[in-house]
Amino acid sequence: MIEVKINICNQRIREMKISGHALYAPHGEDLVCAGASSIGTGLLNALDILVPNSCKLILKDYILIQVVEDSEVVQTILRTGLIQLETISEQYGSYLKVIKQEV
Fold first, then answer.
1. CA torsion, points 56, 64, 40, 34, in degrees to nearest 10?
2. In the predicted model, is pLDDT for residue 27 greater than 90?
3. Strands 12-20 and 63-67: what pairing?
4. Interhelix angle for 31-50 vs 72-91, to 10°?
5. Using H for helix, E for strand and C for coil, what is the string for the chain?
6. What CATH code is carried by the domain that includes residue 66?
7. Number of domains in the chain
8. Which of 1, 11, 10, 15 is nearest to 81 (CA)?
9. In angstroms, rounded to a whole number, what is the distance separating the alpha carbons of residues 43 and 36?
10. pLDDT computed for residue 11 by the predictor
11. Across residues 64-74, what is the average pLDDT?
12. What residue numbers bound the domain in which 18 lies?
């Protein structure tokens, strides 16, 4: 299962971590993994290009985004990605789970 962990403080996203594997279909055919990976990579690219140095960005066997300098642009990008991931979760909830926690 893919887990999307969101840390929220005062209604603002502070951290987002996408990790795991959907195991929806065989490697190379897994649409859930492909969708989540595309959204995660798009978030990294958008933050890097549109608001450089505003977030710590890590791409390994997981995606980690930590907000360093918050702004409305950063929040809009992160919320857009969260909505996209939640949309996948609505259809494929057994394979992708969004976990929000207040910190």
1. 150
2. no
3. antiparallel
4. 180
5. CEEEEEEEECCEEEEEEEEECCCCCCCCCCHHHHHHHHHHHHHHHHHHHHCCCCEEEEECCCEEEEECCCCHHHHHHHHHHHHHHHHHHHHCCCCEEEEEEEC
6. 3.30.70.1490
7. 1
8. 15
9. 11
10. 96
11. 98
12. 2-95
